[in-house]
Description:
Elements lengths: L1 E2 L14 E2 L2 E3 L2 E3 L2 E4 L3 E6 L10 E6 L8 E6 L4 E6 L3 H12 L12 E5 L5 H13 L6 E4 L33 H10 L3 E6 L6 H9 L8 E3 L5 E6 L10 H17 L3 E4 L8 H14 L9 E3 L11 E4 L7 H17 L4 E2 L11 H12 L4 E3 L15 H16 L1 H14 L4 E2 L1 H4 L13 E3 L2 E3 L9 E5 L3 E4 L13 E2 L2 E5 L9 E4 L3 E4 L14 E6 L4 E7 L13 E8 L4 E8 L11 E8 L2 E5 L2 E2 L3 E5 L3 E3 L1
Parallel strand pairs: 10-11, 10-19, 11-12, 12-15, 15-16, 16-17, 17-18, 29-33
Antiparallel strand pairs: 1-4, 2-7, 3-4, 5-6, 6-9, 7-8, 13-14, 20-21, 21-22, 22-27, 23-26, 24-25, 24-27, 28-29, 30-31, 31-32, 32-36, 33-34, 33-35, 34-37
Helix pairs in contact: 5-6, 8-9
Amino acid sequence: RGSxxxxxxxxxxxxxxxxxxxxxxxxxxxxxYYSTDGYAALGVVEFSDAQQLPVRYEQHTADKxxxxxxxxxxxxxxxxxLLPAKVLRDGTEAxxxxxxxxxxxxxxxxxxxxxxxxWESRQYIEDTVHRFRSGKxxxxxxxxxxxxxxxxxxxxxxxTGKPTYHDFSYNPGTFDDPRKQLKAFADMGIRMGGIRxxxxxxxxxxxxxxxxxxxxxxxxxxxxxxxxxAGMYAKERCLNYSREDVRAWYSDNLKSFIEDGVxxxxxxxxxxxxxxxxxxxxxxxxxxxxxxxxxxxYSLNRAWSPGMARLGATVWTGDxxxxxxxxxxxxxxxxxxxxxxxxxxxxxxxxxxxQTNAALLTRWLQVAIFMPTMRVHSVLHATPHWPWLWGxxxxxxxxxxxxxxxxxxxxxxxxxxxxxxNYKQWIRPxxxxxxxxxxxxxNTASWMDGEILVVPVLREDSSVEVYLPPGKWYPLAASxxxxxxxxxxxxxxxxxxxxxxxxxxxxxxxxxxxxPLAMGLQSTADLPGGPLExxxxxxxxxxxxxxxxxxxxxxxxxGRVGKIKFSWSDSTEELSWDxxxxxxxxxxxxxxxxxxxxxxxxxxxxxxTYPLGIMGRIPINALHWV
Length: 626
């Protein structure tokens, strides 16, 4: 169904609730649901009604005559797809197969992105990225607001615009030599993404577009959620991307930026029509294909419609407030959006609309470790969410969070390939894995990141209630952030932890988990960064398929990938592996060495470092206690 702040803390639709597909700041709803009666559904219409679709559905479980009824209503023709599926996992995979496989984003997007409104000058930008590097805070991209392409915002413009506004240019105060600057950032392993708005502000361009019938009559809904559809802004300045000639013209105006080295687009305030974001991204994709034909497309979007991920488009949850309440809703927003068709979800980590604080920002960043996109963002006059600006305790805790994110790069990147190839959900609610466990049915405070069960601290008092489903569970031992010391827990119960230290986030894995981890990265450009660590959590057999490719191009779509399947035999206590596809497919970024770490109730053992060949094995007698 999607979600808004009103229902982010539940995964279900209440009886009598009408689900109206729409897009606005902080909310997206899709014409989709999964029913425990054993099917998934998708309603498809060919047109929109501005920000809404002319279709909706309602559940009627309290109807005595027909107690399990869902009613669809449409003001025109509609195709209804019904996908038989006994459990949520099967229904979600079938749904993703229907709307299109989610493309694997470029490898750099699996790192950390630093965004803000207020990059005031070229010197400030360069000083900031150098501070990230000198302070050992891993970073792969910066994202710039209005200030990268113009000298003023257009929020107060009338429909006629202003003759001095630049829609397709560079601000000389921040990018006076853009090609040289972007090349210098790329040499540091840092990309730049720029904000785009779906409208025009320049008077001459508006006059031209209006003469061609390119402008929508409406505007952008005001406020966040609930949206103010009556109090719109940017009226009569928003482009109608449903027109092919508009998309072609817009695409042509982006090509020079791509040639200069702008890596991706941050698409904001596109809730002018339900399908604007999809069509807008199509125009941007065309620009990329006509300039760098085999480069992967990537964008960040404030709202979405089902199927956008097949273009390479990702999303974030809108202009959230810097409050503990908004933090608590973030996991549920992510999970509901994933289930409804947006697999790559990020957020304005720390909160966007005002001043945050050190503890809130740190806890939010810990959540973002285990989200598909890890990105901070802040409003113009707030303190930027750079780790060194929030005191020494928070600074170190945030550095540790970033380091864990980069440890997980090979793990997350492989999960993204499994999503693309088999529709296997990387991020998913616990109910998808344990549908018979009632404690998972409405749980939005925890989620699965692959095989990691994440239970972050979401409360100001640093307490958290942990529910582990039945089985043996280990604290994740990938970093001191998660404090894995080898002692497993029995699942099937809830435990409350209080006074969780600021530098820790609870996260757990089941016995039999096999996890590949990177070492010492400050950027994905540093890969491999050293040997690959493969962690095994003893107590059951397990396996994991590591996937490598060039990280930049679309060649993976033609099968240009390398796969290494790691298998752990718990009875013989041996890790073995074999390869498939293109060995060393990542070129100089490929892992060429390996060491094994085994975590068991007795403690931790580690092997020496070995060459990572096409096949191999490491027996337990090759390990020593650490």
